[in-house]
Design brief:
- By secondary structure, the chain is an all-beta fold.
- The chain has no helices and twelve strands.
């Protein structure tokens, strides 16, 4: 997909696994990374909510089987990007898995 600089980019996270997914979160919002493609390499560009993981102890953002979470972001920079969301299948918060969006272009 292609977006204009400053346009809102919506994304969905679906859980098709029969186990409940535990998402990295900042209180009740999903925490995620924005990666930028630079010279055909994905480089972490920014993150949203990850530094505040310790601020909301006891809050567990989960996604059960067939559940969907919808969020959005605005990126005010041109380039090729993707969204990366850490998750796990246990409450330990080890974030041993990551899901990646399709890449998208901002012009």
């Amino acid at each position: 997909s292609s977006y204009t600089n400053g346009e809102t980019i919506s994304f969905k996270i679906n859980n098709f696994n029969t186990s409940t997914a535990h998402l990295a979160s900042c209180c009740t919002s999903v925490a995620f990374y924005i990666d930028k493609n630079e010279n055909e390499n994905w480089i972490e560009h920014s993150n949203f909510g990850l530094p505040c993981l310790a601020l909301c102890p006891g809050i567990d953002l989960t996604l059960g089987f067939s559940e969907t979470l919808i969020d959005s972001i605005v990126i005010s920079e041109s380039g090729k990007f993707r969204i990366r969301v850490p998750y796990s299948f246990n409450q330990a918060g080890d974030w041993s898995y990551e899901v990646f969006s399709n890449s998208f272009i901002i012009e």
